[in-house]
Amino acid sequence: QVQLVESGGGLVQAGGSLRLSCAASGRTFSAVAMAWFRQAPGKEREFVAAITWSGGIPYTADSVKGRFTISRDNAKNTVYLQMNSMKPEDTAVYYCAARTVVDGTPNWDIRGYRYWGQGTQVTVSS
Fold this sequence. Notes:
The structure is a single chain. The protein is mainly beta. It has strands at residues 2-7, 10-13, 18-26, 33-39, 46-52, 58-60, 68-73, 78-83, 92-99, 115-116, 120-125. A hairpin with a 5-residue loop joins strand 5 (46-52) and strand 6 (58-60). It is globular, with a radius of gyration of 14 Å.
C-alpha cells in the first residue's frame, strides 16, 4: 500500500507563489510517475502536471505551462509543485497521485493513477 501526504496549500494573492509537497510512503514505493491534479468546486478533477519517477520527465497542462513546475526528489520519495504567477482560476483542491504500473494510459490521464492523497486547498484571491 502507498500513502501520499500533501502539504503547502493555503491562501495567496494573485501573482503570488506557493509550493506544494507530496511525500510518499509505504512498504515498497516504486512509482512509474507521480502527478498533481486539481478540482475546483462544481468541476471535474483535472490534470495539472506529472513527472516520470526514474527519468524525471515533466508533463504540464497548457493552462499552467510557464507558471507551474513539477519536480521530484527520489531520495525523499517526494514530489513538488512550484506555482508562480498564480491566478484566481488556480483556486482548487490539489491532489497528489501516484501510478505504479504501466497500463497504456498516458501520464496525464487520471485513469492511470491508483494512489491518491487527501488533497490540499489552494485559494488565490484577486
